[in-house]
């Protein structure tokens, strides 16, 4: 690694008390350290460093506050029974980060450096990786445009930051099947837009529909395509799968659907088990008809936060589609057990998905 | 005004040197003070205050950095020949801010308080309002979600901020007609999305297309509808107008087009002059045909930054549409002269558009 890419480490002089593992929630507590690297046009990405977790001091004219040029990623570190720490497919995250960067006109980061930074950061804060059932250390790499300039153009300055949060289960209800509202009015993304990028605007635009779902006591919304409002795209923070007459079906990546890493892992695992998996266009009408004819056997969402989240019901206009009597299906259960087992080092890892954070990654103080 | 809404003022102990009015550019220099008000769930908006212009200190987990929940506005203050300071239709901006807030699940602000804050801030920094031809004080009210939480949900904490920047002409070329690239691949917004809201994500998603336009030496892109890519929506940072066979035509507001204040003022002024103005769906094919038959007389954009910006050429796929021989048309010229004249207090103001910043608005120190 070149000289300018040596990661400097400044350790916190005091460590924060760690929250009780029973009540972690999601995204509320943060570890003692963070990673930062700056980008300056002409100089590139520079000064990678691990520093005590601290506020950012930014001019109020910084472009992130006005024009939303930003990207992020999400992944998790897990503690194994024998006290090792594992990351789940982290290179996939940094590859996707760079795809998001390209769409949002943000300069690419060195994926190897990012992974090395992540490993060192986790090693420094390894005591923050919780061990209780269902818990993990959620890792949030993100990039924000920091140039102090009011004008619509790609920024000349950015910060790449990684923060980490010990988390419990994403869904308060745990693995219990969730109820999903099919959204007919609001649109998340359209071909030619930014749906495939993990960028803030996609999430900001989803809030209004989620508010309606909350009022109706549904957990999340299912997004339909923005053109015809017929074809299924994804669920709030997850990709979505259906089991129809023994076959697994999921919407094909079309430019407006997030290319989920748990989605990809699910497809690979199902194929490994010899199941038929088809990525194609899926209409809501088809799901309704499969439900009416008794062929809709299961539905579930996939995502880093929840891993596998069984879906027990869809509300589509005035039609209620109950899936598998509102209970978790065998495929979702087996996927959840297998993937979370691999993540925790408790199951064989046939695809070499996990990356261990080695003790020697801890930088010498 | 209620006690808790009294605007506190802390003046800067030192004033910055003011930039030369010849080389202001746009959005690069900021005044000595800013306005801030906080929102806390359960307490509402509170602690409105004018303070020295200063960096924001924000936790790296603040939602604005991750999920893009934000809105903004843009308006200008002008210095008249006789040294008065005028705002152009500021109540329109705060009404639109609240419409954007509604779409983005951000709590509404008190529009009267916002206007009072704006007037006081301009009064405090009135020496920053430039006087040279084409210059003004650009005002940027914005709201960002500040809750330190990694989860996709409306935030419980926000900051409403106003910053101000003395600016020259938005376009480096001045009033010279611009060349516009019609965008066929990327999409800015779609019905059911956030196109009508002034929110960061809309601007972030536009950068990639703008990059392509820059490479081809076009100033901005013209966005087509996201569904059929046939109908005209708006130009990069402006609404768009056409004069076809003596009639003025502009795309009707459809939920994905920004409800521009200069657009509205242009329509009102044209009608006041007795011209026929139609807001309706306009296809690119129609514009091309009008051009071919010699009926396309003018085209221009409207926006706060540029006010009126004549368009001299469109490139639509491989078809080049030259408008009015690439010269400014009489309607655009008359609109520009009249609206900028009203803004600077040099022309009669038949609609009471301008609001004077009174000397007594300066708070007692």
Name the features.
9-stranded mixed sheet, alpha+beta, 365 residues, D-amino Acid Aminotransferase, Chain A, domain 1, 2 domains, homodimer, D-amino Acid Aminotransferase, Chain A, domain 2
Give a written overview of the molecule.
The structure is a homodimer of 365-residue chains. Chain A has 365 residues and is an alpha+beta fold. Chain A has 2 domains: 3-168, Aminotransferase class 4, branched-chain amino acid transferase, N-terminal domain (D-amino Acid Aminotransferase, Chain A, domain 1, 2-Layer Sandwich); 178-343, D-amino Acid Aminotransferase, Chain A, domain 2, CATH 3.20.10. Chain A contains 8 helices and 19 strands. In chain A, the strands form 2 sheets. In chain A, strands 1, 2, 3, 5, 6, 7, 8, 9 and 19 form a 9-stranded mixed β-sheet that branches. In chain A, a hairpin with a 2-residue loop joins strand 13 (239-244) and strand 14 (247-251). In chain A, helix 2 (90-103) packs across helix 3. The first copy, chain A, starts with 7 loop residues before the first strand and ends in a 9-residue tail after the last strand. Chains A and B meet through strand 4, helix 1, strand 8, strand 9 and helix 4 of A and strand 4, helix 1, strand 8, strand 9 and helix 4 of B. Strand 4 (56-58) of chain A pairs antiparallel with strand 4 of chain B, so a sheet runs across the interface. Chains A, B: Keywords: Amino-acid biosynthesis, Aminotransferase, Branched-chain amino acid biosynthesis, Pyridoxal phosphate, Transferase. Chains A, B: It catalyses: L-isoleucine + 2-oxoglutarate = (S)-3-methyl-2-oxopentanoate + L-glutamate; L-valine + 2-oxoglutarate = 3-methyl-2-oxobutanoate + L-glutamate; L-leucine + 2-oxoglutarate = 4-methyl-2-oxopentanoate + L-glutamate. Chains A, B: It comes from Bacillus thermotolerans (Quasibacillus thermotolerans).
């Amino acid at each position: 690694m070149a000289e300018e890419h040596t990661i400097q480490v400044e350790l916190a002089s005091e460590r924060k008390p760690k929250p009780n593992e029973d009540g972690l929630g999601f995204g509320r507590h943060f570890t003692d350290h963070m990673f930062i690297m700056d980008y300056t046009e002409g100089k590139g990405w520079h000064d990678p460093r691990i520093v005590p977790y601290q506020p950012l001091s930014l001019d109020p004219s910084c472009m992130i506050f006005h024009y939303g040029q930003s990207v992020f990623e999400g992944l998790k570190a897990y503690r194994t029974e024998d006290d090792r720490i594992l990351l789940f497919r982290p290179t996939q995250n940094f590859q996707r980060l760079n795809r998001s960067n390209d769409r949002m006109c943000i300069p690419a980061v060195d994926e190897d450096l990012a992974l090395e930074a992540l490993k060192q950061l986790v090693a420094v804060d390894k005591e923050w990786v919780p061990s209780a059932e269902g818990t993990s250390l959620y890792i949030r790499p993100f990039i924000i445009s920091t140039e102090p300039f009011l004008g619509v153009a790609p920024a000349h300055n950015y910060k790449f930051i990684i923060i980490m949060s010990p988390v419990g289960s994403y869904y308060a209800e745990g693995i219990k099947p969730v109820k999903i509202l099919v959204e007919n009015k609001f649109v998340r993304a359209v071909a030619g837009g930014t749906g495939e990028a993990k960028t803030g605007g996609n999430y900001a635009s989803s809030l209004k529909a989620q508010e309606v779902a909350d009022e109706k006591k549904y957990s999340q919304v299912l997004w339909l395509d923005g053109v015809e409002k017929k074809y299924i795209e994804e669920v709030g923070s997850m990709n979505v799968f259906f089991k129809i007459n023994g076959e697994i079906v999921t919407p094909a990546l079309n430019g407006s659907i997030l290319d989920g890493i748990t989605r990809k892992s699910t497809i690979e695992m199902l194929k490994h088990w010899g199941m038929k998996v088809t990525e194609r266009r899926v209409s809501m009408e088809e799901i309704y008809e499969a439900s009416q004819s008794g062929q809709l056997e299961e539905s579930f969402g996939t995502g880093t936060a929840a891993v596998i989240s069984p879906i027990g019901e869809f509300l589509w206009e005035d039609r209620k589609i109950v899936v598998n009597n509102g209970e978790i299906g065998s495929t979702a259960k087996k996927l959840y057990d297998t993937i979370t087992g691999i993540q925790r080092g408790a199951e064989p890892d046939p695809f070499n998905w996990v990356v261990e954070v080695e003790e020697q990654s801890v930088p010498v103080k």
